Amino acid sequence: MDTVPVNNFEGALPLLSLNHVSLLCRSVWDSMRFYEEILGFVPIKRPSSFKFNGAWLYNYGIGIHLIENPSIDDFDTIVEPQSINPKDNRISFQCTDVGLVLRRLEDMGMKYVTAVVEDEGNKVEQVFFHDPDGYMVEICNCENIPVIPLSSCSFNPRLSSFIKSAQPPKCGFMENAMMESLSMEMLNISF
């Protein structure tokens, strides 16, 4: 079954999905090792026309493109990894077993921070850590909280208290069925 992207904005770009994330790194070798051994990415062929050091990796329906820049410190403030801040920029991956993730990170001696998000009885466990260049990585069981587009819920954008409100948005049966179907298709694509 073909998935038609949900796009409610006339004139929006005809996007299909997130393809890859590009990251500057001090050492392609160190970063490749991290993304392979820690996160399970697989190196893939990279175009031979590139005239700079780099690597492409792929898994879970997304690519990681590493671009080596040994003088990254001249352009970026990441000299040493900052403290692990769950409110910082990051790339996030869903997992099947947060407990196993924690045990493996412990076995590898990796520093990490955990957090829990709860909404309407649903609980998401999050684990945050840095890659060799200080980029934040999150591992979570985010599928525990349903994806409900605000456009399908009774929402008044003038009510700024919506975000702080304890009242759950009210969605119709069709909207919930559509989002459940879309979520399942997204999960199938990533495996």
UniProtKB/TrEMBL annotation:
Pfam families reported for this sequence: Glyoxalase
Ranges that cross the membrane: none
CDD domains: VOC_like
Domain VOC: start-end pairs: 17-142
Gene3D superfamilies documented for this protein: 2,3-Dihydroxybiphenyl 1,2-Dioxygenase, domain 1 (3.10.180.10)
Chain segments annotated as coiled-coil in the UniProt record: none
Domain of life: Eukaryota
Name of the protein this chain belongs to: B-box type zinc finger family protein
Organism of origin: Hibiscus syriacus
